[in-house]
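Moderator note: this is an archived Q&A kept for reference. The question asked for a predicted structure of one protein chain; the sequence and the answer are reproduced below.
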Amino acid sequence: MVSKLKILKEFFTFLLERKKWWLIPVVVVLVLIGAVLIVAHGSALAPLIYTIF
């Protein structure tokens, strides 16, 4: 788990040092979509969500 957090820290440090501000919203949206798909996997909303994506 520590190595995963280290990778995230290095990634955000890279974004800040290289002034890649436009990538931060892209990453956040991708993480949110992934979280919705994981949470809705076992629910009754799964067919609706899978048809949207």
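Archived answer notes: Residues 21-53 form one domain.
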